Amino acid sequence: MTTHEQAFERAEPQAVERRGLHRPSLSGDWWRHLIALAACFIAVFPVLYVASAAFNADQSLGGTNLIPRSLSLENFRELLSPDPAKSQLQSSTSHYLRWLGNSLIVALTTSVLTVLLGALAAYAFSRFRFRGRRLGLLSLLLIQMFPQLLALVAIYLILLRTGDVFPFMGLDTRTGLILVYLGGVMGVNTWLLKGFFDTIPSELDESARVDGATPAQVFWGVVLPLALPILSVIGILSFVGTFNEYVLASALLQSNENFTLPLGLRGYIDKQYTEHWGPFAAGVLLAGVPIMVIFMSLQRFIVSGLTQGSVKG
Amino acid sequence: MAEVVFTDVDKFYENGVHAVQDLNLEIRDGEFLVLVGPSGCGKTTALRMVAGLEEISGGTMSIGGRVVNKLSPKERDVAMVFQNYALYPHLSVADNIAFGLRLRKEPRKMIEERVAWAAKMLDLTPYLARRPKELSGGQRQRVAMGRAIVRQPQAFLMDEPLSNLDAKLRVQMRADISKLQRDLGTTTIYVTHDQVEAMTMGDRVAVMSAGLLQQVDTPQRLYDQPANLFVAGFIGTPPMNLIEADISFDGLAVTISIGAQTLTVVDAGLKRYPRLRAAGGRRVVIGLRAGDLHLADHRPELPSVTARLELVEALGSESIAYFRIDAMAIRPEGLDEEVDDELLGEGVTAARPNLVVSIPAESAYGLRLDTDVRLAVDTAKLHAFDPATGEPLR
After folding, report:
1. How many domains does chain A have?
2. Which of A26, A248, B52, B227 has the fewest CB atoms within 10 Å, i.e. is most exposed?
3. pLDDT, tens digit, for every residue of A231-250?
4. Cβ separation of B90 and A213 shorter than 8 Å?
5. Is residue A257 part of a domain?
6. What is the extent of the structural domain holding A258?
7. Is the ipTM of this complex over 0.90?
């Protein structure tokens, strides 16, 4: 350990003590707390409102108060076990669990493949020098400038025609939707990952190669483990983005049983006189659960400083 | 264990840089060879070509009698220690050391034994479960060494492994690595820009500059008989004084004129540089080690010159005195751009002392700054070089 580090370590406890002495006084800092409380309220209000609507026995949105007059699980019951006889939905039967399943399959597959393919592409761009590397990077960036929505019509037509040859990935299939999602975010993620890979010292690769690793072993054994923080961030962002995506899904999915959650839930509130805000709110609330689970499980990977100590003193 | 042979090896980079030119070098089995030179001289490129991390543009490279030009790093069976250690941060010390063996699918029991052996050898046993970030710089350096020795490769390649350590630790690790290498008897190529490291560690030292091999020899012979002006200026601390001087030869004695002052070269000096006689009437570069200059009162039998004392650095046992003498100081090409770049750029005075003398500490007390001092010159030990080619006048 260098003397510098030792000095640093010695200095740290003192710093903590000093911080303890200067406890901020409430009188001087009240406005900070005010701002923080306001921010919290703004962030939490919609969630509270939806939660309230979900547990409210009253069906109309206008009659909903933040604190419901009577609590009931009726909305959830209707959502999860739609009894056609009792259901207030006349046109289409609710497939809530199926939509949730669809959404999970699409979002999970998309995020896993996005991370994997993005990492492979980024690794090549970051580490190998090949003809067309620069051009490839630039065109990825350029294509990324146009939002995918611009290509909606083209994507629709491509899937329509593809479906003639490969029915499993044509219009109104989950595979087709996954492929479209994958193409949409590949560029950004490749750039992000390449930027991260560039910060991993190439000596690590070289050292592994001299130790006897093949390029694949270097990728899986050395580079990917070090990139876990950025991989999990990209995974989460892609999962949330796909899980919530509405426009593309609405254009490409047509049959009720293939709907993803946003499409399915839209069915509760898109008719003028038969809006069912209660089940809708319940559905939205339940849909938040998988996202929470993913966040919680990946949280521990999103730590900085994982590459600390690999090089230099 | 094996010898490493460079035969006419060339390296061109894509941008046209000729990083290594026509390198011929044989590193014997079990030898500790140090590649030294200023940064950008091609020494690291040469080492990376041995490892297989750089392609060889021309010539052949063989390890243990096997031509390895087209072999991948994996197939060459060498181990490399990097300047920044390149430890895998997500693996424990034990896993870092075992990494290469695991890739080679060695039996688990053998891996455990070898890791334990390497850890014991390097004093790392208490740290095996730790991550690299929990180690000090010196410990990390030892883990990097452990990763190399555990595989028992044909050769060790070390790329400035000590340059990230602080000065005291560096001196200690220098000795540790030398001893380790002698105990293991593994052929070692060690790259450094620090000529002190090169001199203290190498069985032989190869000096490179601008992609060209300048001289390969034992440290002592590099010091005593530099093959050219560059090596003379590069090897030795403090560096050799190199100053321009006019030679005259009257048929009997060779006289050197430094500015307006003259010195007669004794026979012992002429014996080492006989071509000094033929250089009569020409201007040459005279090289004088700091230790071959003395205060005139100490060596009254030697011829002397006068120089102005500008600075004294006390080192304890001896002092380094900086003088200014009326003559042009020469900096060999290559050294000029690289090593002294910082010095030249960041100097605080325009006129720098051009004569460095090491004197016993107790005599330094009698000296007063900004006075003229008579300096005795041991002409038996001087060096002489052709200013145009840098060749020694031997």
Report:
1. 1
2. A26
3. 888 888 888 889 988 888 88
4. no
5. yes
6. 96-302
7. no
